[in-house]
Every structure is written in C-alpha cells, then in structure tokens.
Amino acid sequence: MHEKTRLIHAGRTPETLARTVGPPIQRGSTVLLPNSQALYEDDLGYGRSGLAAQAALIEALAELEGAAAVQLYPSGLAALTGALLAVLKAGDSVLLSEGAYKPTRQFCQNVLQRFGVRVQLHDARLSAQEVLALIADDTRLILLESPSSLTFEMQDVPAIAAGARARGVLTLIDNTWAAGLYFKPLAHGVDISVQALTKYVCGHSDIFMGSAATGDAALGALLEAGVHDLGWAVTGEAAYDMLRGLRTLPTRLARHDQSARAIAGWLADQPQVLKVLHPALPDDPGHAIWRRDYSGASGLFGVVMKPGPLKAQHAFLDALKLFGLGFSWGGFESLAIRCDPQLASRRFVKALEGPLMRLHIGLEDEADLIADLAGALAAYEAASD
Ligand SMILES: Cc1ncc(COP(=O)(O)O)c(C=O)c1O
C-alpha cells in the first residue's frame, strides 16, 4: 500500500475498545496491575511510559520511519538531547555539523562538554570524504542535519553514514525538514533519526514533541533507557493531537512543497534577490544530492537579498501582511524571519553575500503569498536608498 494509506491505518484503536477513528486518551500516572506477580513483571507498570494514545503514535511513527523502535520526548530539542545522552559517555567525542539547529550545537558545547564529551564542529559544506577524515579515535557519533538550519546546505548523508558505520561510529540526523516523509534516514544507513514533531507532523503550530527512531534493537533499548533515566513523558492529549496531524502529513506536505517551489522560483527572478537557498531548485549546490535521496521538499527555504541596510530588512519584514514574523515553522501558516544575528555565532559560515531571510510557505493561496512578497520586496528596495 502507498505510504499515504499506511499512515492513516497504522496505530488504530485496539479491537477490544469502542471503535473510534482515533485511540482513547487515557489519563493516568497510576497503572493498576492485575495481580501481585504482575507488579514487577508487566511491561506497563507506570503511566510515564505512555498509555494508549502514545502507543498508537509510536506505532504510526515506526511506520513513517521504517523503524524497529521509536521514543517520544516533550520537544524536538529534548529528542535530540535525550538521544545524545542515551548513547554518549565521558571520553567520547561527537562530530557535529555547524549547520545543525543552534540549540543542538549549544547543548553539545554547554552540556556535553561539561560532562567530558569532546565536541568537534564540521563545516556543513564538506564532502562525505572530508567529514569522514575528521573521525578520531574517540569519535562515537556524527550528528547531521540536511538541509542545514538557515543556510540549507545538503550533506551526503548515505555516504557519511556508510563510512561512519564501517569505522564503528554512530550517525544521528535531525530530519525535521523532510518530516520523516521526504527523506528516510534509516533506509539510507543512519542509526538514529530524530525529528521535531512540533513542526510538520503537528502541522498546527500548537504542540511540542519530538521523536527518535532506530532500526537497531540494541540502540532502541539504549534510547528507551535514556528516556526512563531522564524522566521524559508526553501526555495522552498531546500524543492524540500529534497522531491526528500525522494522518494528513502527506497531503499537507505536498501542498507546502508545491507552493514553496513555485514561490522560490519566482523569488529567484526578482531584482532584489541575490539567490534562493532551496535544494529543489536546479541550480542549488545541493540539488544533485536532494534529487538522488529525497522524494519531495518541504515549505522552508532561505532567500539571500541583494546587500541592503538593516532598515531595509526591517522594512521588508514589516511590510508583510500574510507572513507572520515567528521562529517556528511547519504549521499551516506562512512565516518569515531574518537570520543574520543567528549566523554571527557560527565559525565557518558567519554571513552570506547579502542579508539572509528564511521563509516558511504555508497553505495559503500561492498567488496571494507572491503578491505579499512583491509588496515587501518593493519596501526593501525603497528603504535601501
Ligand atoms: C531543525 C530543528 N530541529 C529541532 C527543533 C526543535 O524543536 P522543538 O521546538 O520542538 O524543541 C527545531 C525548532 O525550530 C528545528 O528547527
């Protein structure tokens, strides 16, 4: 069956209960055990591990990821930090793409380093061979994100994963951009696939959650122990809403993709724009990798403007009427931010050739969004003099 069908039918209501389309939302810290022997033998003895809605969501995410084991976390960042803490120990080192989400980098540098894990940053533009050449005796894990946050570089994930595995090094990817749908990390040899479900799986910008998935049973047990040791839990209500989002993910993402590609192409032709950072555009440096490994693109991309003063960047963003100004993405609504203050903390790519904007294309009508952007580009030009 097609993935669209499988994602609608995975994780259904157990046959023993009244048959609603979604699972029951059970609320409970206490789980009552049937008898004394079961107290220490039953797999489900305490509500923190999740009840029916969490179990249904895990089953559906395992279908999406092609995974043997999936863990849920209360945010996307918690999934990244939780998975790292589950597999790393003092004396290890982690090799981390500079294009990774900034709080992920900060966690490695602020927390992991404090606990004796060495953190090595690599330039997101390196080839697979160049990344693999940085592996040292203590390297335990390579953390990837492709395309990169903000700058959208594509990494050769299958080649890095294969080379790392041959050297006994784990790989973990933040696959939030592809929403688990347009790129399948586990099928491409990655050990742990993480995503912020907060973004596209939720789709409505109103719930935090993250997941970590693996195809390896031993790694699955480590992730599970990590969640248990750190005390993470997600509520049944949040899991139910997340599962509801997952049912429409393929349909929504196809629409984000279609509009975003059309708008990215239009922007690339505008005189105020230097270049558009979108791997599905044929002249993007990451296009060949994207075309080889991905079955679609999401609604998030970057726009490098012709050089202009800060007041012109403010004029551009403040002129937008349909695009909200906000940092998250993946919901039904279009959003815009300027990125240069975030790039300043990077070591390899501190700035691009002009001011960098990031757009999230929502589910509004494409022509309305283009008209909104045309007004904002005119404001940019007027404020550039
Ligand atoms: C690529 C990426 N990964 C992870 C996260 C973190 O997700 P959350 O906000 O659920 O912690 C974000 C949030 O912006 C993100 O953009």
Report on the structure:
There is one protein chain. With 385 residues, the chain is α/β, with parallel strands linked by helices. It has two domains: 3-247, 3-Layer(aba) Sandwich (Aspartate Aminotransferase, domain 2); 250-384, Aspartate Aminotransferase, domain 1, CATH 3.90.1150.10. 38% of the residues lie in helices and 15% in strands. The protein has 13 helices and twelve strands. The chain has helices at 3-9, 52-65, 76-87, 102-112, 128-132, 157-166, 217-230, 236-247, 249-268, 287-293, 310-319, 340-343, 366-384; strands at residues 69-73, 93-97, 118-122, 139-145, 170-174, 192-196, 210-214, 273-277, 300-305, 324-325, 335-338, 356-360. A seven-stranded mixed beta sheet has the order 1-7-6-5-4-2-3, sandwiched between helices. A five-stranded mixed beta sheet has the order 8-9-12-11-10, with helices on one face. α4 links the parallel β2 (93-97) and β3 (118-122). α1 (3-9) runs antiparallel to α2, α3 packs across α7 and α11 packs antiparallel against α13. The chain is globular and about 80 Å long. The protein starts with a helix and ends with a helix. The mean pLDDT is 97. The structure holds pyridoxal-5'-phosphate. The site of pyridoxal-5'-phosphate has 12 residues, from α3.
